[in-house]
Amino acid sequence: MTFALGAAPGHDGVVTTSPLGLAPVLPVVVLQDASDAVPLARALVGGGLPAIEVTLRTPVALDAIRAIAGEVPDAVVGAGTVITPQQVKESVAAGARFLVSPGWTDVLLQAMRESGVPFLPGVSTASEVVALLERGVTEMKFFPAEAAGGTAYLKSLSGPLPQARFCPTGGIGPGNAPAYLNLPNVGCVGGTWMLPADAIAARDWGRVKALAREASQLERLRPQV
Fold it and tell me: Which of 26, 35, 41, 102 is the least buried, fewest Cβ under 10 Å from its Cβ?
């Protein structure tokens, strides 16, 4: 599975593919301490979740991306909450191999195109989806998923807009993730439930790995085609 724009080479020359095709769940990581980045990433990868979205919501995010990119070769680390062209440049320079935004503008979209790495621009309405399709983008983040209509809304989009595929994020957990993954236009779901705050605070990477392993098995719940 590759992005609409095609697979893009990372800084190491390795082709980066869409996170939609790497695992059923894309962990959405918010880190307060950059020293947690590498052991956390190793726990997620060890649990079967190689694609990791590190959100740019904290001052240490770029350092965390840089550390994961440099020390966890089996991880495909990306930057989330990317909202400015400057963040695009900084994220790619730090080693991000994909970009995720909560929404998009033409200015941001152009910067992401020029970055040379795959990206998931955020949408929450049919009009935004159509606008991206007009611009040649077929893979997107659906955010905030539950607040924007959830599985019913995404299912309603699959008829008139079958070429669009999504990573729904926002309000998704192990209880409702299977319903999203059963939709034909969903490639993966984004979530934080495998990253409980108390486990991060305690640096209980074994627990994170176990939760990641459970999340990685959600693919089995899809109907066989």
Answer: 35
Active site residues: 53, 141
List, for residues 134-157, the tens digit of each pLDDT value. Answer: 999 999 999 999 999 999 999 999
The count of other CB atoms within 10 Å of the CB of residue 188 is: 28
Residue from 97, 69, 72 nearest 80 by CA: 97
Instruction: List the one residue out of 153, 149, 61 whose CA is nearest residue 100.
Output: 61
pTM of the model: 0.91
Task: Yes or no: say if 121 and 108 are a contact pair by the CB < 8 Å rule.
Answer: yes
What is the model's pLDDT at position 222?
52
Q: What is the DSSP string of 53-106?
A: EEETTSTTHHHHHHHHHHH-TT-EEEEES--SHHHHHHHHHHT-SSEE-SS--H
Largest CA distance in the chain: 47
Domains of the chain: 8-212 (3.20.20.70)
